[in-house]
Design goal:
The chain is α+β, with helices and mostly antiparallel strands. The chain contains two helices and two strands. It has a two-stranded antiparallel sheet.
Length: 87
């Protein structure tokens, strides 16, 4: 079985790895035939508001010495790994 992470609903099966990948490529090509890639401009913050500080930087490192952080992260990573399809 082959899966494209950017299009998880595109699954292809084959008797071999190569056959599954060829079928997946065909599915993705069919899906993208009428697709247009473009860019859009998103305005940034207004510099006149005077708030030049990055709000995320104010919280950086706040949990650095927290003994509960590492076990929590390990639980999160284990849950993510359990949700991923087998390779």
């Amino acid at each position: 079985m082959a899966l494209a992470p950017v299009a998880p609903d595109c699954l292809a099966e084959g008797r071999t790895r190569d056959e599954a990948l060829v079928r997946l490529r065909t599915l993705l090509e069919d899906r993208l035939v009428d697709t247009e890639l473009t860019t859009i401009d998103i305005p940034g913050p207004d510099p006149s508001d005077g708030d030049d500080e990055n709000a995320w930087l104010a919280t950086a490192g706040v949990f650095a010495d927290d003994p509960l952080l590492e076990p929590l992260l390990q639980d999160i990573y284990a849950a993510r790994d359990a949700e991923r399809p087998p390779r």
